[in-house]
Amino acid sequence: MKLTRPVRFVYFDLDDTLLDHSYAEHAALQALHAAEDRPFGTHTFDAVLAAYRSINPVVWQRYASGAYTKHQAKVGRFSQLLERLTLPTDTDEQLAHRYLQTYATFWRPVMGAMEAFQAIADHVPVGILTNGFVEVQQAKLRQFSMLSDLSATIVISEEVGVLKPDPRLFSEAAARAETRPEDILYVGDSLTSDVHGSLGAGWQVAWYAGDPFDHPDVVSFSVWDQLTALVREGS
Ligand SMILES: [Mg+2]
Predict the structure, then answer these.
(1) Distance 225 CA to ligand 1 centre (A)
(2) Centroid of ligand 1 to alpha carbon of 48 (angstroms)
(3) CA of 113 to the centre of ligand 1 (A)
(4) Residue 151 CA, ligand 1 centroid: distance in Å
(5) Confidence at 40, pLDDT banded by 50, 70, 90
(6) Do 129 and 101 sit in the same domain of this protein?
(7) Residue 1 has pLDDT above 80, yes or no
(8) pTM higher than 0.85, yes or no?
(9) Residues 105, 137: Cα–Cα separation, whole Å
(10) What's the gap in Å between 182 CA and the centre of ligand 1?
């Protein structure tokens, strides 16, 4: 595993790369499911989780393409969830709000990621490049303030107006980092948003928890120390 070009700037994805989004999402839905007022009626938690996880990515795709407004994404995923569970949808707004509040109580780092972030930041300038709702992502960065303290730049898709893997977001991020695309390494977990997005922008990419990927600009890793060593060698 080796990078083919020197690295002069490292951008990190936030959700499911540095922070354990999937855990917080799961735990928040579980807490809502178990709440005294039973917002999901008699449906099992597994049914609720499966429905949510089939609805949410489609909602995000539509939000990314501009077909949905932010409100339609934020609240609409819960209207669709209630509909899918054949429950009245009049609580969708309240549920969306409760979900985000509960979700925030379960944020935690991915094991080893913070240490790697810090070690890499000692060697090269780093930044955060994330999709997501701006107020939610900013709250995460306030809670895990080391990330913003050590970052030269923070790029949240909603502020730019396009989401990963849109190349415009990557070129905006490169411009803000004042670094040529070929000198940037992106670290992320998503094949579509992060790997394809980076390749489309001419960046190198370290795919976290990814499969082997046969491309000179892609390395896959699962242990954070591997990434730290790789960047140290390559910067
Ligand atoms: Mg991610």
Answers:
(1) 19
(2) 22
(3) 13
(4) 18
(5) very high
(6) no
(7) no
(8) yes
(9) 14
(10) 21
Q: Distance, CA 204 to ligand 1 centroid (Å)?
A: 16
Asked, as a colleague might, if the bond just before 39 is cis with ω within 30 of 0, I would say no
Instruction: Identify the domain boundary among 88, 105, 122.
Output: 105
Q: How many CB atoms lie within 10 A of CB 211?
A: 8
Which residues constitute the domain of residue 70? 22-105
Helical spans, DSSP H, in the chain: 21-34, 45-65, 70-74, 76-84, 92-105, 113-121, 134-143, 145-150, 157-160, 167-177, 197-201, 224-234
Q: Strand 204-208's sheet: what is its strand order?
A: 151-156, 126-130, 9-12, 184-188, 204-208, 218-221
Tell me the HSE value of 211 on the side-chain side, using a 13 A CA sphere. 4
Instruction: Report the number of distinct structural domains present in the chain.
Output: 2
DSSP letter at 210 equals P
Residue 230: which CATH number?
3.40.50.1000
Average pLDDT, the chain: 96
Same domain, 172 and 114: yes
**Spatial CB neighbours of 149, under 8 Å, sequence gap ≥ 6:** none
Whether 93 and 124 map to the same domain: the answer is no
Cα(132) to centroid of ligand 1, in Å? Answer: 10
* Inter-residue contact 226 to 1 (CB < 8 Å): yes
